[in-house]
Design a protein that fits this description.
The chain is an alpha/beta fold and 302 residues long. Helix content is 33%, strand content 20%. It contains 11 helices and 10 strands. The protein has a 6-stranded mixed beta sheet with strand order 6-7-8-3-9-10, sandwiched between helices. Strand 7, helix 7 and strand 8 form a beta-alpha-beta unit. Helix 5 packs across helix 6. The radius of gyration is 20 Å and the shape is globular.
Amino acid sequence: MTDDAPLPGPPDPADPSGTSGPADPNGASPQADPTDSVIGPVTGPDVPALVVEDLTVRFAGLTALDGIGFTVRPGTVHALIGPNGAGKSTCFNVLSGVYRATAGSVRLGAHELTALPPHRIADLGVGRIFQNLALPPRATVEDSLMLGRHRLTRTGFLAAGLRLPSAAREEARHRARVREIAAFVGLEKQLAQPAGSLPYGQQKLAELARALCMEPKLLLLDEPVAGMTADERRRTASVIAGVRDGLGISVLLVEHDMGLVMRLADSVTVLDFGRRIADGTPGDVQNDPAVVRAYLGEETAA
């Protein structure tokens, strides 16, 4: 692929050939070009399992997570649910490098994540969206999505500042990729609008699109449909299903909308007071007496 070639379309599953990047005009050695990624299936050896084992987190005398474990299989949606205070956000913060684990292991394929800072975990292909919106309100949707391409950018500060041809070509490739991803989530007509002017549901989709612009192997979605209307929830659930079914990206989902979880998730792990109380298929978990007690209380469950 030449520097000014357009991004390829979805790959033919029968022809999974790779591409190496050209020599950098500033003298860097040839390497695989992350901007060659496409909107297409990426399952297989490129998408590793996430394995959490005996994960414990303590804050002074408080045990937020107590030896929990679960596995997110490649190319699946795995839901992490539980009542408020169960430890779901703490778990996400450990997986993304915000918190350090007191004990236990988190492995993405062959990589141990528990000692890595957030930027190193992102470099390994872990993307995250948070409960609260974090889009720059005055930037356009396109420029907001371009922030997700930062870790994939190879142009140096000097080349970008001088607008060298190599820098302009790389930016053009990144913007083409951003447009593809915006179309995938249904925001292609909003690219020129300020991100802060979008309805709430579309801003949440823009957050998801920005995470996809990182070219992740695993997405951590923290309450992606919270506060949405019924129509917005259905649209977002459809996009998440497309991330799994169309792109093959693994998804770990925290969500309080149990109807959405039961329809969308392949596997469910339930936490209560920092401990794992159930793990299995949505149907199995839904009928587990310990889960019923955690959500409804002892008397109601009886």
